[in-house]
């Protein structure tokens, strides 16, 4: 063979995150695989999307009043604990306007 035969060149696709590999002869298939991997690694995982959907469904029950009340109470409690921790230190000051 005097010249290289480019149709016999194999493209190697390595996906480190899943420890899988594939030998792909068709360049179009290889490009589609690369696009798929690229798009799926940039976006939010499907599991995370499903969890967010479940949370939104709970939030929509009863107009979200219980869900948002829980969030408000949790954040208020956390802010109150932070304010108490900061007030102990003589080096840090917290504004009186926070009314915690």
Description:
This protein is mainly alpha-helical and 100 residues long. Helix content is 55%, strand content 10%. It has three helices and two strands; from the N terminus they run E-E-H-H-H. It has helices at 27-42, 46-60, 65-88; strands at 11-15, 20-24. The chain has a two-stranded antiparallel ribbon. A hairpin with a 4-residue loop joins strand 1 and strand 2 (20-24). The chain is elongated.
Topology:
Layout: E1 11-15, E2 20-24, H1 27-42, H2 46-60, H3 65-88
Low-confidence stretches: 11-16
Amount of helix: 55-70%
Coarse structural class:
mainly alpha
Q: Tally the helices: what do you get?
A: 3
Strand order of the largest sheet: 1-2
Estimated share of beta-strand residues: 5-15%
Radius of gyration from the alpha-carbon trace, in angstroms: 27 Å
Amino- and carboxy-terminal Cα gap: 82 Å
Total number of beta strands: 2
* Biggest sheet details: 2 strands, antiparallel
**Shape call:** elongated
Average pLDDT number:
75
Helices and strands, in order, run as EEHHH
């Amino acid at each position: 063979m005097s010249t290289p035969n480019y149709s016999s060149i194999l493209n190697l696709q390595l996906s480190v995150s899943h420890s899988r590999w594939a030998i792909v002869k068709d360049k179009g298939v290889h490009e589609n695989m690369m696009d798929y991997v690229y798009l799926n690694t940039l976006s939010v995982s499907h599991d995370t999307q499903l969890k967010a959907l479940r949370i939104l469904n709970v939030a929509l029950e009863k107009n979200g009043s219980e869900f948002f009340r829980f969030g408000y109470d949790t954040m208020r409690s956390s802010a109150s604990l932070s304010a108490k921790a900061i007030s102990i230190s003589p080096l840090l000051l917290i504004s009186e306007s926070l009314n915690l």
